[in-house]
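Quick one, T. Sequence first:
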Amino acid sequence: MEAKVKWVEGLKFVAESASGHQIVMDGNRGESGPSPMEMVLMSAGTCSAIDVVSILEKGRHEVKGCEVILTSTRREEAPRLFTHINLHFVVTGTTLTDKAVERAVSLSAEKYCSVALMLGKVVEITHSHEIHTA
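Structure tokens:
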């Protein structure tokens, strides 16, 4: 996997993936795009959500929606590393059970989500979920 990051101006950069997708990131408190740390947080949520939806669908559960609400704590001093991240899954569907969603979240957390597994080496990561009926 490869990517490149190009400085635009100030603390604004454009990152481009090997597949040609671009995103603006801003080190100036997210003035014109997400900050790099916001991208890390969003990447953990997206990676985990992909797993959860995929696992539930493979289990023949009808998933109508999946949202991950991420909350985090960071160190006050530099480097401002994450110390805790919670991923709260709000899964909507018609055939969902608590057991199935809990299993999907656990499999993502313990086996499949590369981003969260990598971060989990240095950050305390917790998970919670709720189910909404569609």
